[in-house]
Amino acid sequence: MKRSFIALLSAATMLFAAASCNSNDSVKEAQKTNEAKADSATADNAVGKAEERGMDYDSEFLTKAASGGMLEVEMGKQVLARAITPEAKKYAQQMVDDHTKGNAELMALAAKKNITLPTTLGDEHAKVLKDVVEEKGVKMDQEYMKEMLKDHEEDVKEYTDASIKASDPDIKAFAAKTVPMLKMHLDMVTKMKVAVDAAK
């Protein structure tokens, strides 16, 4: 019990230290916490260093994926409430449904692997959300579909890479299992974007 309290205290201290730096990017803060965990967990030898590099890739993938998943849900909810076109509404609902489920799986996996995830959007994703919700009417729908197309092109690539490069077999399996859903989202947005772009 005492040991877990000390571990919790040191994790909180690391988070506070990360927050005290100039950047308040939640993704970078979570990655710093994970690096500190990896440093303290690995022995200073060649095998340890190789393992640490693998852990760094895995934790970096999960922290970025967590922020991206939160963006899909948060932006989906806001667009759903204000969208004009039926295509943008339908797509936003799909994002909320699928990514809420995916985020829960990702959080459970990270907890199992002792990987700290961001609890708020990273700076990059926060900017995307702001850019979309600042628009009004059809322009918001069009900006949303544009960002979703770009986002899912990147996601398909990142998850496909992780399904090959991740060192942890469970993280590799999670990435591989998620790729078909992301490809389906990419296919949907590619088709629906045409109608939304044509809307007046």
Unreliable segments (pLDDT under 50, ≥5 consecutive)? 1-22, 43-50
CATH topology name, in short, is Ferritin
Separation of the first and last Cα atoms: 62 Å
> What's the gyration radius in Å?
19 Å
Q: What is the total number of structural domains?
A: 1
Count of beta strands: 0
Helical region count? 7
* Known CATH architecture: Up-down Bundle
- Structural class call reads mainly alpha
CATH classification, class level = Mainly Alpha
pLDDT averaged residue by residue: 83
Report the order of strands and helices. HHHHHHH
Report the sheet with the most strands, covering strand number, pairing sense and barrel closure: none
Descriptive report:
The chain is mainly alpha-helical and 200 residues long. It has 7 helices and no strands. The protein has helices spanning 2-20, 26-41, 46-82, 86-112, 123-133, 137-165, 169-198. The protein starts with a helix and ends with a helix. The model is unreliable at 1-22 and 43-50 (pLDDT under 50). This is DUF4142 domain-containing protein. InterPro entries: DUF4142, Ferritin-like. Residues 58-191 form the DUF4142 domain. Keywords: Signal.
